[in-house]
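Case study: MFS transporter.
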Amino acid sequence: MNTYLHNKEYRILTNANLLNAVGNSLFNIVFIVYASTLPFNTLAVSLASITIFIPSLFQPLVGHRADKTKEKLKWNIYSRLIQFLLFSFLAFLILLKPSFLLFSVLLLINVVADCLGFFSSTLQLSFIKELVDEESLRDVMGFQNAMFTLIQLIFQGLGAFLLVQLNYNFSLFAGINAVTFLLAALVIMTSYSLLKPCNDSLKITENTVGQSNSFVEDFKEVTTIFMKNPFLKMIISFAVLINLLTSTSESLLNISLLTKEYLWIGNLPNSIALIGIFISVGLLIGSLWTKDFLRNVSSSSIISLILVNITLIPILLILVKSFILVLISLFTLGYLIGKLNPRVSAFMISEVPQEKLGITSGVFSTLVMAGAPIGQLIFLGTANVFNDTLSWWLYGGIALIFLSISLVSKRKERTAVETL
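Here is what the predicted structure looks like once written out:
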């Protein structure tokens, strides 16, 4: 927060990024609602849900392109202007008679716009490395994570409310969404002269280092960085395992609530809403409160605590049968993830060369996301073929195995240090 208040250049870039996040958060839920109104609604909703994950597959390539971009400041503006034009076009297309071909074009526009959003945010990593001193990086990334979480929490709900107030006028809503991207571009355009010295400094660095590597060469180099760096190697391994579990927990809880009325707090919609709220609020507080009792606790210990919380969820749900305790565990889980994420982001920005930040961020995001479809296949598949109780026991058993692995890894790490 302190850097945001006192570093004007960083504040400008962050404001633009937050406006981008508003646009993305507003339309994600609305697009699902639009898909549900189509004649082929089951297929449309499924495709819309799957499409949300497609941009993550292109993140290494998009990140590589961001690294190779010479005029980072200009393309920070251009990418957002293109997003504005795409959503303006989308607002027009939605007015046309629904068809599968039209819906496919809308999906493509949404994917391209999301890739451009990642492109612009990745371009800004170099600016952050240039503008923020290393000691403040963890606090800065914690603040950004908290703001993105807060925006997602507020504007997804606001998007649904606003859509109702607009009488389900999807075209008008898409137009409003387009304006958020235009505003993000204008924030940087109006401060171009202030940001130009930093941009010129980045260009000097790029010219000195050189950027002749192909995507494949850079990808291999980044993979080598991950494998040779013990911290990044450990984080990636456990991030995949944790994401395998956490990506499914919310959907699995929703399935359990459908058949277990005794878990409800008030009614089913309220109970479902509380799941996301408790995770998001925990994540928000964990990211913002940077000087808490966990500040000096090692990242490997935080990973173990995350896995303890994940292991507790099926026990509290199936044996204890307390949804309130499940919600407290979800809040704690969000809080701990809010502690870990800024550390990883800050470490990568400080340790990875400026000309490799984009592809490093893209490869890391894609690797972490790899656990999600595996988890959904295992746990949601078990819940649908058999029942949710069996799925939760499987979930808890795998979580316990991952926890054991983390504790053994931590013990080996401690032994190695004592030996030295």
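For the exam, be able to explain this: The two ends are 39 Å apart (CA to CA).
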